[in-house]
Design a protein that fits this description.
Pfam families: Glyoxalase (PF00903)
InterPro entries: Glyas_Bleomycin-R_OHBP_Dase, Glyas_Fos-R_dOase_dom, GlyoxalaseI/FosfomycinResist, VOC_core
Keywords: Transferase
Strand content: 25-35%
Number of strands: 8
Shape: globular
EC number: 2.5.1.18
Organism: Pseudomonas cucumis
Number of helices: 3
Order of helices and strands: EHEEEEHEEEH
Largest sheet: 4 strands, mixed
Helix content: 10-25%
Length: 138
């Protein structure tokens, strides 16, 4: 049985640049580095950066992205820090809770989000998506 998400591995084209982005700008904890990779962490998240010269740095056209949690009190300062660093935004927020959608140096789509699944479901109960069904009564 699955018990949770184990880790994320992101292909990167410049390991030092990506380590600096995730460590210095996003403030993940650097755990280890080697010639072709790095491990970073947040509570409950293990992130692997893997050097891959075949990685295309253009963001994918689809909506696939990785969302990080941020507290509501920290959100404005976090967004300002990213904007000051000229981090590229890829989408405006269209959902409940404050969100900032941005790209890492290799075009991976990321999001900083205030809220969790419970707050999202509560908002959806008020304004459900087209065809939405809830399964908590089973």
């Amino acid at each position: 049985m699955l018990t949770g998400l184990n880790h994320l591995t992101l292909a990167v084209t410049d390991l030092n640049r990506s380590v600096a982005f995730y460590r210095d700008l996003l403030q993940l904890q650097l755990e280890a580095t080697w010639d072709a990779g790095a491990y970073l962490s947040l509570p409950g998240l293990w992130l692997c950066l893997s050097l891959d010269p075949l990685r295309k740095s253009a963001p994918a056209a689809d909506y696939t992205h990785y969302a990080f949690s941020v507290g509501s009190a920290d959100f404005p300062l976090f967004v300002e820090r990213l904007r000051t660093a000229n981090v590229r935004e890829w989408r405006d927020n269209r959902s409940e809770g404050a969100s900032f959608y941005f790209l890492d140096p290799d075009g991976h789509k990321l999001e900083a989000h205030v809220g969790d699944l419970a707050s999202r479901l509560a908002a959806c109960r008020q304004r459900p998506y087209a065809g939405m069904k809830f399964f908590d009564d089973q």
